[in-house]
Amino acid sequence: MPVVALTANAMGGERERCLQMGMQGYASKPIRLPVLLEEITRVLSETSPDGDNLASAQER
After folding, report:
1. How does pLDDT run across 17-40, given as a tens digit for each residue?
2. Widest distance between CA atoms in the chain
């Protein structure tokens, strides 16, 4: 299941930290709907219906 981090912590490096922890996306508050929808769309387009990340599936 894809996970998009939604955090008030917008400090430098936070996005990378969230991605290293296994999240597939990141958005910071205050929420800007177009940005959040773009990130959700990006994450969903990179994930296959069975939950595998397409990039990692192509590497196998």
Report:
1. 999 999 999 999 999 999 999 999
2. 38
